Amino acid sequence: MKGFTLIELLVVVLIIGILSSVALPQYQKAVEKSRISEAMTLVSAIGKAEELYFIANGEYARDIDKLDLDFPGERVNYYVNSLQTKHFACRPVGGPWQETEVLAVCNRLPRETVYAVVWLKGGGLACRWYNEKGKSYCKMFGPVTGNEVRMF
Fold it and tell me: Which DSSP category does 18 fall into?
């Protein structure tokens, strides 16, 4: 008689279950890492547009419509003047935010639940977290300083 016994099938299912339980968290980290890279690109565009606006007008813009910006998201009113993609709500700040001079911020959606990527005045990026899961994502990008990870 040809075929597999029940024990052989159970062993194979068990091995597949173990492999998937090991691979799934690594897959989720890789996906979130690519999303953080997306946020870095978006917040950099807003931050650089803020710096150009400052050079031209002597002040920072708090209204996203004042910036010369081609953004792939849709206009939403989370923060009065933010743009939203599938995973982030991004806006210009143009001033203090959590005791740091920040020009732009992209919050992971749902907003203020996991982490935010910010463009710092004078250039440079930082990742700030709202919970331990967000902290573990931010720590993938550099050294921890206080409640943020600096990414330069």
Answer: H
Buried b / exposed e over 78-103, threshold 16 CB at 10 Å, is: ebebbbbbebbbbbbbbeebeeeebb
Whether 1 is in a domain gets the answer: no
| Both structure tokens of 145 | 């300083």
| Domain residue limits at 65 | 6-151
Q: Which two tokens stand for residue 18?
A: 């173990």
pLDDT of residue 83: 84
**Residue 99 placed within a domain:** yes
Q: What is the CA angle 138-82-124, rounded to 5?
A: 40
Residue 78 pLDDT > 60, yes or no? no
- The string of pLDDT tens digits covering residues 14-34 is 999 998 888 888 888 888 888
Cβ proximity of 50 and 135 under 8 Å: no
| 116 belongs to a structural domain | yes
CA distance 97 to 93: 8
Instruction: Please state whether the peptide bond connecting residue 25 to the residue before it is cis, i.e. omega within 30 degrees of 0.
Output: no
Residue 89 CA to residue 108 CA, distance in Å, equals: 7
- pTM for the predicted model, two decimal places: 0.76
Residue 107 lies in a domain: yes
CA distance 128 to 147: 6
How many domains are there within the chain? 1
